[in-house]
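Q: Mind making up any chain with structure tokens?
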Amino acid sequence: MTQNIRCAVIGASGYTGVELAALIARHPQMSLGGVYVSEASLDANKPLSQLHGRFLGLLDTPLTPLSEEAFAAIGTSHDVVFLATEHQVSTQLAPKLLAQGLVVMDLSGGFRFADADIYPQYYGFDHAEPELLKKAVYGLAEWNAESIKTANLVAVPGCYPTATLSALKPLKEAGLLDTQQYPVVNAVSGVTGAGRKASMVNSFCEVSLHPYGILGHRHQPEIGTHLGQDVIFTPHLGNFPRGIVSTVTVKLASDVTQAQVTEAYQNAYAGSKCVRLYDEMAGQSPSIKNVVGTSHCDLGWKVDETSGHAVLVAAIDNLLKGAAGQAIQCANLRFGLIDFPLEAAS
């Protein structure tokens, strides 16, 4: 346990960025170096703990404005950079960081698709690095571990896709889904999933449980692409701070039983430290209260053998397993580090 991986976080002032910084600071084989915000940020030079009071005395590191000079020096003092930046900003920064010899863990959607044609429709910009898209590895840690171990650019999945793919992929890979029927996904996220910027929708008096991005949310093609099967995905904003529950209704292939579905989950996640299974959800099912503050993904399922349908439920913390915690999982794999517990700092 002698490695000391030097880590930088760009976009450290947001909810995901500060969780990254906290996890890195506590990791016995990582050290927290630069924590950066844009030069124009009003948070530049403020201590992280001034923005996020629960880290007072734990993360008093000042936020460095990312000047050209500061950016050019990142490669001399770091091994890996975590990008908690806007999608298009990540596409601009990642190639330059890779050119400095750094490993890049990108938490935006900037490199989650090999097909550049998806970006104008779902992200609103033309991708400037189509060749680099083909080299990025999708960082769904339980499923792409071997590829992550040798990747220099890891596209950390979105929060909704992490929960939903974790529920669906065991059945897809085992051939248990009816491929002629779209899985129907209804998922609810806490308000932190919308980021730290103030808006009317996120304000205390306005927040209400409601669907958004209907049939047009950018996570719909992300789920479909990495599942290998189209889905119908409807996200909802909930009136709570953090956590996601994704409920998925699927049509199973002919004559699939509860026992077969259970076996598929057990085989897929045998030995996983982050995934916990709730067979049949008898008496207890995945819930936000059991995952908030952790990098666990709790999965439950129940099969109606008469109709051939199943209901799958996944619960995660959107800021940890859905973002910062999974990014650290990927870094652990990439650098051969220990499976450090990925709970939030108090």
Q: What stands out?
A: The CA atoms of residues 14 and 196 lie 6 Å apart. The longest strand covers residues 30-37. The first helix runs from residue 15 to 26.
